[in-house]
Design goal:
7 helices, single chain, 40% helix, alpha/beta
Length: 182
Amino acid sequence: MTATSAVSTDPLLVDVPAADLVHALTAAGQTVATAESLTAGLLSATIAGVPGASAVLRGGLVVYATDLKHSLGGVSDEVLKTEGPVAASTAEQLAVGARTRCGADWGVALTGVAGPDSQDGHAVGTVFLGLAGPGHTEVMRLKLLGDRWTIRISATHIAVRELLRCVRRPDPSPVGQGGQGK
């Protein structure tokens, strides 16, 4: 059995470059940790589905409840009170929190609204992706379509692709210090 056929049996790995991410992190000698709200661990599970992931995946925080975004994820009370759990600042602080609390080179955070109803004025499909790594912090606001599963799996796939882009970037200088991404 080849590595490719072994990976393809995991349904979380379909159409996502998780094996490429694990390889890139391994080659760079870097690690990753996650802080997940709406995806509730899907990102960590997707990365862990790749053979060899234990060399790069430090761990993950499932911070579905707002109070856990503060106590486990490191989001300031002020940000949660003024901007809420679904916000760019929340995603940024969660990414930094995952990186710091798990002792990883990269922190990746996902927070948003999977539905079926809007939340705090945010439409279903609103997702914020935070990435924090060596000399690099960025946040992307995503607008995803579909049912709960489609939104959650799409957010996971985008997070894998965007982290892979960051790990592979040729210039290690900051790209989007706390700003809005694509």
